[in-house]
Structures are given as C-alpha cells and as structure tokens.
Amino acid sequence: MAPRARCRWCGATPDYVAYHDKEWGVPSRDDRHLFEMLNLEGAQAGLAWITILRKREGYREAFDGFDPALVSLYRNARIERLLKNPGIVRNRAKIEATVLNARATRAVQEEFGSLADYLWNFVGGAPIQNQWTGDGDVPATTVESEQMSRDLLKRGFRFVGPTICYSFMQAVGMVNDHIVTCYRHKQLA
Questions:
Q1: Cα 40 to chain centroid, rounded
Q2: How confident is the model at residue 2 (pLDDT cuts 50, 70, 90)?
C-alpha cells in the first residue's frame, strides 16, 4: 500500500504527521480551542511550531486548560510562577499576552456571544476552500488575516500579527490550505 500523500510541511516527524492528519485544518468553533490555538500560534512567533507542539500539554496545564475566564484572572504573582515553568516557553511578553488575550476574549464573548462567532465572521462563517498545488503557493498572509489582525489588536489582543492570524486560520480550519494532492484536502472540502 502506497503512503498517503500529505502536505510537505509535515514531513515524516510523528508529531507533525499526527497534527496534520487529525487536527490541522479541521474547522473548530469551540471557544476554548480557538483561544488555545490563537495563543499557541502567538507563542510560536520566532520559534519552530514543533517546539510549541511538543510543549502543548505543558501549556494546557500552565494555563488552566486555556479557560479564558480563569486565565483572565491571572495577576503578577501567577505570571512570575509561569516564568519559571519549564513546560512552556518562558517569555514574559508571550505569557503576559496570553493573560491580556484572555481578558480581550471575555470582552469579545460578551459583545458577540462567543469567540467563535466573532472570529468566523472574518471568513464569512464558512471555511475558505483554497486550491493550492504546492506548499510554495500558500501565502503567509491574506486580506482576511490582515483584517483579523487589525481588529484583534484594536480590541487589546497581543501577538496577533497578520502572519500569526493566518497560521491560526489554517490551524482551526477557517481556510483549507491542504494542497490539492494531500488526502486531507478532499476530506475537509
């Protein structure tokens, strides 16, 4: 039996393959998952995604399962403890951003009913179905990710530049960026 054709970015690393096959590009409308992924994408800035992927359980433990209601209550003492936690990337700006993002998420939930309703508006409520033929065709940003970034920043979110927003959109299935020869493209179309 021939191996499945996949997007080249996942290579043969088991962690990447599992993430690609089971999660990347699957539409999510779960607020906690969306909050988690937005912050993990931000934590990845300047690092390899595999670093964050391998620390994901550490992040979940450190940030109360990415419950925005709980994380929004963190104060300086908690941030200082997180800076000593080897299970996450110990970067003050990124840790503080997660707390600020939790507070901004709570405000968005109050205004829009859910983080999902707010975020999915940037793609008209349904995944954008791209038809890329190679990994090199996939852009780093789009008009939608630029709009999302601007609005998130205006609302007090941090580590949400247009490239991070586009990576987030790919991860949570707002766009189907599996290349057309990847077996997951058709499954998620």
A1: 6
A2: low
- Lookup result for tokens 């707010």: 118
pTM: 0.97
| CA dist., res. 165 & res. 23, Å (int) | 17
In angstroms, the first-to-last Cα distance of the chain is: 24
Residue appearing with tokens 């995604």: 49
Q: Which of 16, 49, 120, 132 is catalytic?
A: 49
How many whole angstroms separate alpha carbon 1 and alpha carbon 134?
24
DSSP 8-state assignment for residue 132: -
Cα–Cα distance between 73 and 100 in angstroms, integer? 10
Question: In CATH, what number does 8-188 get?
Answer: 1.10.340.30
The reply to whether 41 belongs to the active site is yes
Q: Hey, what amino acid is at 135?
A: D
From the candidates 16, 41, 118, 144, which is the catalytic residue?
A: 41
Q: What is the pLDDT of residue 135?
A: 87
**pLDDT tens, position by position, 55-112:** 999 999 999 999 999 999 999 999 999 999 999 999 999 999 999 999 999 999 999 9
Q: Assess whether 19 carries a catalytic annotation.
A: yes
